[in-house]
Amino acid sequence: MSTYLPARSLRRVLVLLLVAALQPANAVQEDEEAGWTPEHMPPASPWREQSFELPPYPEDGRLIEISVQTGNFPFRVFVDPESLTIAGDGVVRLATVIRSTAGAENISFEGIRCKTREFRRYAYGARDSWQVLEGTNWQQIKSGGMGHYRFVLYRDYVCDPEISGLKVNEMIQRMRYSRGAVLDE
Questions:
Q1: Model pTM greater than 0.85?
Q2: Helix (H) or strand (E) segment spanning residue 10
Q3: Are 141 and 147 in contact, with CB atoms under 8 Å apart?
């Protein structure tokens, strides 16, 4: 069986093909005239982390407990709201206190990159002062295990794919009043 196109339909197809073939050339020519071709555009500079200062050491009286609702994470998690910052590089930095039921604590100052779902530890707490960690790398935030609280921070409190660029006060409001925006599966 042969395919038959009436003359009118054939003309329409040819006109559409001709318009499609000419369109990119015209668009490229207009872009070149305006100076918008790739060779005229400055290359995007690679992301660079900005410098920062360590926050005051966390104090019990100002900590906010966040909800980490999962059966395999038997710790209480607190954030020091005075440590919470967002820098021009897009990194959310904060001090966390992870406390076991026996009272043992793991205190750290960390950064979270919402755009790439990564974290980095800058310092840990010991004897009421910060001990700087040199040469730490950015790592993927994963659900589960000892780092599950980072996933919950990322997902429920400091990053939001629907609201670009949460402000510090919005993050603190989420921590104070939300009790976990999304339940774990």
A1: no
A2: helix 7-34
A3: yes
Give the Cβ contact number of residue 170 at 10 Å: 14
* Residue in 68, 99, 73, 66 with CA at minimum distance from that of residue 184: 68
Q: Is 104 exposed, middle or buried (0-12, 13-18, 19+ CB in 10 A)?
A: exposed
| Residue owning tokens 């910052």 | 85
pLDDT digits (tens, 9 = 90+) for 120-157: 999 999 999 999 999 999 999 998 888 899 999 999 99
pLDDT tens for 45-68 read 788 889 999 999 999 999 999 988
Task: Please measure the distance between the N-terminal and C-terminal CA atoms of the chain and give it in whole angstroms.
Answer: 56
Q: How far apart are CA 49 and CA 27, in angstroms?
A: 37
User: Hey, what are 121's tokens?
Assistant: 């530890």
The conformational region for residue 165 under phi > 0 = left, psi -120 to 50 = alpha, else beta, is left
Query: Which residue is it, tokens 């959310």?
Result: 92
Query: What single DSSP character describes residue 180?
Result: -
Specify the residue for token string 């925006």.
Answer: 181
Query: 75: burial class by Cβ within 10 Å (0-12, 13-18, 19+)?
Result: middle
Q: Tokens for 178?
A: 């939300």
Instruction: Give start and end residues of each alpha helix (H) in 99-177.
Output: 148-152, 168-177
